[in-house]
Specification:
By secondary structure, the chain is mainly α. It has one domain (about 1-250). It has 11 helices and no strands. The radius of gyration is 20 Å and the shape is globular.
């Protein structure tokens, strides 16, 4: 019973607060367009770097991820997003994001060399890949929030993420799942238009700026922006309090 009360009380206040933050920082809706175009330019420019293309891709991708996470941090914590915040974002979490990508690369190499040859033959490579991806999705689900809200290094961020999910898996996944379901039914084409690359892969370039695609893209960005703000607020609440403390504060 306390769990249900906690879920309702916590998420009711966060839902309202997330809406207010998105309304005040509405420019966040258009951030996805910038990241889509920047990613497209980055990929198209890789051919000029020859053997250094992989390094350039990692650094460029890390910088874009760092920027987005810093932008979210400004909205979630400060409720204010400025041009200077956007400029600073490319380097704020760059080293940490780069380190996490490197850890994933080492992990992938270990799977390819030691795990896949054994378990892949037993249960099949496709089934093994699905199991590993599902476990990573569950255990590292809150990694973006840990990166921009907690002061850990790359490996420390991963460990803290796993511990957070273990301690708050009900409080974290129930609201996340509930919001995703609502978003899905509100717009079956939610993920159409997330990135310009994906759009261009699905339709002709001449249809890219059609009214329907623009509307779909904006709607998807509204939903995604709200969802990410919501996750940030929820993580901040759960990581700094316990269920008993939240219920106690409600009574005051």
């Amino acid at each position: 019973m306390d769990l249900v009360r906690d879920l309702i009380y916590t998420n009711k206040s966060i839902a309202i607060k997330a809406f207010k933050k998105l309304y005040k920082n509405w420019i966040l809706i258009f951030a996805g367009l910038f990241y889509s175009l920047a990613t497209a330019i980055l990929i198209m420019s890789l051919r000029f770097f020859w053997v250094l293309a992989a390094i350039v891709l990692i650094i460029g991708t890390s910088a874009l991820i760092s920027n987005y996470l810093h932008v979210l941090n400004c909205v979630v914590k400060k409720n204010r997003l400025t041009i200077q915040d956007f400029k600073d974002g490319f380097t704020v979490h760059l080293r940490k994001v780069w380190g996490i990508i490197f850890v994933f690369w080492i992990f992938q190499m270990g799977l390819s060399l030691f795990v896949n040859p054994i378990l892949g033959r037993m249960i099949g490579p496709l089934a093994l890949g699905l199991i590993i991806n599902f476990l990573l999705f569950i255990l590292l689900n809150s990694l973006p929030e840990v990166v921009y809200q907690k002061d850990y290094n790359s490996w420390g961020s991963i460990k803290h993420t796993v511990n957070f999910v273990k301690e708050n898996w009900i409080e974290w996944f129930v609201p996340n799942f509930f919001i995703i379901v609502i978003m899905y039914f509100l717009s079956r084409q939610l993920f159409v238009g997330i990135t310009a690359l994906r759009i261009m892969a699905l339709i002709r370039i001449t249809d890219l700026f059609s009214p329907m695609m623009i509307i779909t893209y904006l709607i998807s960005q509204v939903f995604i922006s709200y969802f990410m703000i919501y996750r940030g607020l929820l993580f901040a609440r759960l990581s700094t309090s316990t269920r008993r403390k939240r219920l106690f504060m409600r009574e005051l």
